[in-house]
Design goal:
Elements lengths: L9 H11 L3 H8 L3 H13 L6 E5 L5 H7 L4 E6 L2 H8 L9 E3 L12 E7 L8 H11 E12 L5 H22 L4 H12 L3 H10 L2 E9 L4 E8 L3
Parallel strand pairs: 1-2, 1-4, 2-3, 4-5
Antiparallel strand pairs: 5-7, 6-7
Helix pairs in contact: 2-7, 7-8
Length: 234
């Protein structure tokens, strides 16, 4: 298992997610103490979708988050580069009646300005070229459209941050061995969270990619942050 860095080999990361696809959703719920449902709900609320809007759910995995977005009445499209994740989502297609599209975040298979909004949840830190992915998201979202990046971040209260980092590196892999279909992958995921930039640094990266009015709000004490931005009008 390769160690987590910001220079990731896409094929290796995709293969890793293929290996966790079968029990990915239940593992996330257990490891987050069911907070993943709240994080998905807040992402949908902050996107401010309307009936008929077209929204891209990038790094959608098995489509659980996409289904949640579709509850707003928007036309939600699930996109992921892990074929294993897409197959797992399609296996329950009767319950998840949204389109699944295979695609790399750095070269999206959509036309310019194809969406009214876009989101990527817990996937940006696994992209090999984060600035390129943010530029691609800007390309496929119409001027004035909204982006929400939901990603693990750094707790703001130092004592809680210490406890959280210990959970990431010690308890999380132990729990993953008991509930996931590929526990080694969660060692990588824990390290990728620890190596990820803090909230202000990620905000600067989003702004540099052509997004405006970038701001963030912390959830669960900063364990997760929602970064919100608008596509520049020109």
């Amino acid at each position: 298992m390769a160690r987590a860095t910001l220079d990731k080999e896409p094929h290796e990361v995709a293969r890793m997610f293929d290996g966790v696809a079968r029990r990915y959703d239940i593992t996330n719920t257990v490891l987050s103490f069911a907070q993943d449902r709240r994080w998905r709900r807040r992402t949908r609320q902050v996107l401010e979708l309307h009936a008929g809007d077209r929204v891209l759910d990038l790094a959608a995995g098995t489509g659980v988050s996409t289904i949640d977005l579709a509850r707003s009445g928007a036309d939600a499209v699930a996109c992921d580069f892990s074929l294993g994740m897409l197959r797992a989502g399609r296996a329950v297609r009767k319950r998840r009646s949204v389109p699944f599209v295979a695609g790399d975040a750095t070269c999206l298979p959509f036309r310019d300005a194809a969406f009214d909004a876009a989101t990527i949840s817990f996937g940006l830190r696994n992209v090999s070229d984060v600035p390129a992915a943010l530029h691609e998201l800007a390309r496929v979202v119409r001027p004035g459209g909204r982006l929400v990046v939901c990603e693990f971040s750094q707790p703001t209260w130092r004592p809680f941050r210490f406890v959280y980092l210990n959970y990431l590196m010690r308890a999380l892999p132990w729990i993953a061995r008991r509930v996931s279909s590929n526990s080694e992958a969660y060692v990588y995921l824990a390290e990728s969270i620890r190596a990820w930039p803090a909230q202000p640094e990620l905000s600067a990266m989003i702004a540099a990619a052509g997004w405006t009015n970038v701001r963030y709000r912390n959830l669960t004490g900063g364990v997760v942050a929602l970064h919100v931005a608008e596509r520049a009008e020109h």
